[in-house]
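The protein record minuted underneath.
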Amino acid sequence: MAESPTELPLGLILAIAAASGATAAWWPQVAYRLAVAQGESPRTACSVCGTPFTVGWRGWFQLAASCCASPDHRWIVGLLAAITGAALCWRTADTSGGRAVLLAGWLLLVQAGILLSLIDLAVRRLPTRLVGALAAIVIVCAGFAAWLEDRPQLLLATMAGGLVVGTLYLLLALLTPSQVGMGDVRLAATLGAALAASGWQAVALSLMLPYLLAFPFAVAQVRHRTAQAGHLPFGPFLVAGAVLAYLLTPG
């Protein structure tokens, strides 16, 4: 007898959305401290006014405006994460078995994607350790879901998706090194792996959406001849494109 679908109640969806937004509101402070050149240690003080951050873990999660560098866009980030969390829950009509695990993985992916995007916007790089941690989350969630549903092909599809997308972006990085960096390659492979668990339609869509989303910003850079023209951070568009591809394809 087929297992009946398990839908999330509206109250739980709202609670998950609120938790997603509250969590994401912390990331601008963390991103500010991590947004340094490759090889440098995280910031211990404001780079503008010199105000030191609190020693220990509290220094990573200061919401008070203690100095001029305190992020003033944290609530926008939180609202965006809350809306995305609610949309992910709404899209996942069936949370029985491993589908709940995959949903949890996507909620974590959004949080990590926001942090990576903020760093990429600030210093044009995607820290390898953070991308590696995200890749580990994707593989663990896919493996656990495959075990719960007794579908080893789910884990195989996840790994295949990462390999295919990673290879395509590696070729782009070799052909256009000024446009696509190795951080983009690693992040694209990780997102491709996450999407492959939902189907290859989502993977194919994710290959197009980042460029469609980035195109208006690239045109604006060229028209205004900004100093960073030609160096548009691609990480945020990769994350946004992957999330949209997941939301737009059947659950």
